[in-house]
Amino acid sequence: MADLNALYQWFNENREEIIKEHENEQVLIRDNTVIAYYPDIEKALLGAGEKGFTVGDFLIQKCITEKADTMMYYNEAVIFG
After folding, report:
1. Which of 1, 6, 15, 74 has its CA 20 to 30 A from that of 32?
2. Dist CA 12 CA 6 (whole Å)
3. Number of separate domains in the chain
């Protein structure tokens, strides 16, 4: 099983390059490597399954700026908090 916090940290450290031409898409990451980009979360999950990945071995992250990511999290925390 992968360390999802470490995968997210790697994504965050490389975010600008990763989202450069893929803003608002979903990125599939495994072993600190971009595997593929998908238009939505459902296709990303299907893609991970087709590659034989199991839950906990990969990260799917929306390609948005850190500021947008922070704002999204804050809004959800307020709504559900």
Report:
1. 74
2. 10
3. 1
